[in-house]
Amino acid sequence: MPRFPSQGLSLSQRGFVPVALVVALAIILPHAVSAADLNPDYVKAYQITVDTAANLQSYELRGMLTMTNNIKGQIGGESMSAEMDAAARWPDRLLSSQSGEMFNLNLGTGPDQSWFFLGQLGNAYVGKPVALARDLAGAGNMDLTEEKIFNFYVGLGQFLLPAELLVTPDTASGTVTVNGQDVPCQIFTTMGPEVIADDGQPAEGPRTFYFDPASGLVLKSTLKVYFRRNEMDFEQDVAFTLKEFVLNGDVDDARFTFEAPAGTRVVDNLDRLTNPDAMTNQAAPDITFTDLDGNTFQLSDLRGQAVFIDFWATWCPPCKMEMPHIETLYREMGRSEANKSGTITIIAASSEDPATIRKFLAKSPYSFRIVTVDEKQAYAKYKTSSIPAGFVIDAEGIIRAHMIGAQTEQQLRAAFAKAGVK
């Protein structure tokens, strides 16, 4: 299942780099060098992928996603897996799911309804049947809009050769067992570094793609991700493996059905899928913040002024996408000791240690107030199971906007306006 960038990342994730991040990582080829200059076999293989996708009218596949974490230099670390199941029939049938220890996702459309189930949140969107988009380049784009997620190629996303990767000049060969047979493959490897990121941010290492020229599919891909947690260096191994597939076959209509599991909260709008329990219009719970110098203060100390709290982390890509927009608004309307005329106090709260935050700020400085917060307190009081999580609180201490996921500048402005800040 491809990523959907608007979904936030768990504050409590310290061992596993979220798959939302992993599948988004790609080393894009610099403009000064063309793929053909590096490996012409790769260019030809990608064209086969494009031609295969263009001629597809239906597909069915089953595969496996595995993720294993090891402390650097060790083996036998924690491993998790998920089964992948996908089917599609042009122009209006789709199923794409992942189920396992990591998560349970199910997306599709059929004769009676469309749906998107997020097992981690226990929420499901159910709507009318939809016609599919046919956007190969957008197979991994999971913005929560009908046009983006209901894409004919969504279920194939992890088994299509990516465009414009920086691969090594040499093409290796090997076999992958699919449909009960050993299939000869070309093996392409990216030039990812084999190091831990100095700034504590996850860094993608080498990726390998086992490409089957006969089908135009990637039968297996592997990826290393390096990251640092609690002053320890980790290596994460991620693998997508195709077990069986059929292209342009007959797909039974019975595949394109969905029934929400017992206890699922069903919503009728995609906008509510990731945040059906918004705390909007509730009194903001008091909470303790600590600045990077060790000084503590309470949210209640700020009563009488509008406040924006952004729960974030240095390792969270959507958080970092959003922060420049927060900076823009802070410079325009932020209240501080130096600017008493500002109309809103902006606080960015992370559960990480001050040293990690300072290292991040040394490379990405921001002017708004950045503090630490107890992770358990944030979760208990503000439901911060996903980040970034943004709360706009008015001068009376009432939450006027509760946002999950990275917001644009325009979205933040609209949220601020709900507390009378313009």
Task: Provide structural commentary.
- The two termini are 39 Å apart.
- 40% of the residues are buried.
- A hairpin with a 4-residue loop joins strand 9 and strand 10 (217-229).
- The chain contains 8 helices and 19 strands.
- The strands form 2 sheets. Strands 7-8-9-10-11-1-2-3-4-5-6-12 form a 12-stranded mixed β-sheet.
- It has helices at residues 19-22, 35-38, 40-55, 146-149, 317-333, 354-363, 375-382, 409-417; strands at residues 58-71, 79-89, 93-100, 104-109, 114-118, 123-127, 172-178, 181-189, 203-212, 217-229, 232-247, 265-267, 288-291, 296-298, 306-311, 344-350, 369-372, 389-393, 399-404.
- Residues 1-33 have low confidence and may be disordered.
- With 422 residues, the chain is of the alpha+beta class.
- The protein has 2 domains: 19-272, no CATH class; 288-417, Glutaredoxin.
- It is globular, with a radius of gyration of 23 Å.
Structural class by sheet pairing and helices:
alpha+beta
Low-confidence stretches: 1-33
Number of helices: 8
Distance from first to last alpha carbon: 39 Å
